[in-house]
Amino acid sequence: MATISTIATPAACESGFVLPAATIAGTPVRARGAEDTQDTRGDAHRATPIFNASTGATIGWQEHANAALVDEAVRAAHTALASWRTTAPAKRGKLLKKIAELIDADRARLASMQMLVSGKPPLEADIDVSDAAATFNYYADLCLDAKAFAPEALALPDDTVTGERFYEAVGVAALIVPWNFPMVTTAWKIAPALAAGCTVVLKPSELTSPVEHMLAEIINEAGVPDSVVNLVNGGGEVGALLTAHPLVDKISFTGSTASGKKVMQAAAQDMKRVTLELGGKSALIVRADADVERAVSLAVGGAFTNAGQMCSATARILVHDDVYRKFMAAFETAVRAIVVGPSQNTHVNPNATMGPLVCAAQRTRVQALVEQGLRAGASVAFLGSVDHACGDGFFMAPMVIAEPPTDNLLWTDEIFGPVACVKSFRTDEEAIALANDTRYGLVATVVTADREAARRYKTQLRAGLVWINTPQLIFPQACWGGLGLSGTGRELGLAGLRSYQELRHAIADVG
Ligand code: NAD
What we know:
This protein is an alpha/beta fold. The protein has 2 domains: 67-279 and 489-504, Aldehyde Dehydrogenase, Chain A, domain 1; 283-462, Aldehyde Dehydrogenase, Chain A, domain 2 (3-Layer(aba) Sandwich), CATH 3.40.309.10. The protein has 16 helices and 21 strands. It has helices at 10-13, 67-85, 89-105, 107-118, 122-145, 182-196, 209-222, 236-244, 257-270, 292-304, 321-336, 360-375, 409-412, 428-436, 451-460, 493-498; strands spanning 18-19, 22-24, 27-29, 47-51, 58-63, 152-154, 161-169, 172-176, 199-203, 229-232, 250-254, 273-277, 283-286, 316-320, 379-383, 399-402, 419-425, 443-447, 465-468, 487-488, 501-509. The protein has an 8-stranded mixed β-sheet with strand order 3-2-10-9-8-11-12-20, with helices on both faces. Strands 15-16-17-14-13-18-19 form a 7-stranded mixed β-sheet, sandwiched between helices. A 3-stranded mixed β-sheet has the order 1-5-4. α6 (182-196) links the parallel β8 and β9. It is globular and about 75 Å long. Residues 36-45 have low confidence and may be disordered. The structure holds nicotinamide-adenine-dinucleotide. Nicotinamide-adenine-dinucleotide binds at residues 176-181, 185, 203, 205, 235-236, 239-240, 243, 254-256, 259, 262-263, 277-280, 311, 414, 416, 442, 482, 486-487.
């Protein structure tokens, strides 16, 4: 049986692998009765399949943790807390730097695993690895600089006392992530949590957990002390056990808004600190003065990167009447030119720019939403194509819907697949009203040559991050997070560190 260290190639995966239910204090822990894991395929609570998204083949199995293992992992993190939170930030920073170096050195293997289980094209998989390394580097530098950890004096209107504010690690952090950017969402949580002095229990998505198993090995190899980072595996039932655990002090969750609501309710029980990065239904606005070629390129990237499985997908495209026909003609050419295909190793299609969806269930879900939307009055403007050579992988052709009614679910709901809607507008006020007509508020993109108009859009669009004439650039220095149903709290940046710290104050008599 292959181990996690050897599974990052399709050849090794052909023999199948079973990933342990948990990794506690650096030690993989198998589920009870796991010896016969492969004979229990029907039992979703013990092990679920991991797929090669490009071929549809089952390449391994992920065991699920039970309540006892979740408890053991949280207790291990709790025990490790006293020592880790008092470790000097500079020492934590050196370990984070080492993790960034090891990620970079292992780039090919990590990207290969992303491509295997998510079907990402090589460029997208490589960007994810770079993003993860950059995040560890950023928080390493914050730790090494130490300023972010120093107490700050308060100016008080009373010279008989002094005041200071200081920051302390929140405690044990439960980190729960989805499958669409497993390396990235995990790095965005683990790096600031460790920087802050929190110990963690991570629960990856059972569909893409091999990536996090590899990351956990890297963290171990970097020399992070045992029990500071622990892993429990499984689906929502394991996540729920984790969020309910009384020794968890902080939950950072990335996933759907529906699950986020349950997480928030669970957190309320013990008043756990909570950061929620949830769904979106974001807009891309093309003004009449826009460079249409650039607008098309940004629309393709915003809607079809990662086969549209992005919280930040700008799947509501608003185009000014004056450039609508020109935009649609160029958009159609670009969408028809998208090469949908497998990208992983032996199946490499060097021209593939869009991979498959993550699994059959996700494709079925997206297709059902599309059918529902079409029945309710939306119509397809044009479609890309899927080559027959794509075989049994979870592929789907990119699809563009024109002028759907504003109450159509394809316009209002997060589809999480390669489906974009286009609508025309006549005035900026109309475009902003249409863009803001949603309870989500994650991101927005504006394409315009007019800087003053861009400034107005930036302030009037209800979104955590607005891109102006750029692709979806994300830097660890800039925060990430949404308004409304897109979540609460911010990741990345200094705020990302602070989200794993308690802000405290002291006032002392000068005498
Ligand atoms: P999901 O909500 O089904 O699952 C996300 C994670 O939460 C998984 O690990 C899952 O096992 C776990 N989970 C599910 N129910 C839970 C519960 N009750 N308690 C605790 N944990 C639970 O989401 P998904 O389908 O894996 O991911 C897609 C969603 O994630 C989309 O809505 C997307 O917009 C969102 N997302 C948001 C961001 C962001 O930064 N805002 C980034 C990536 C993905």
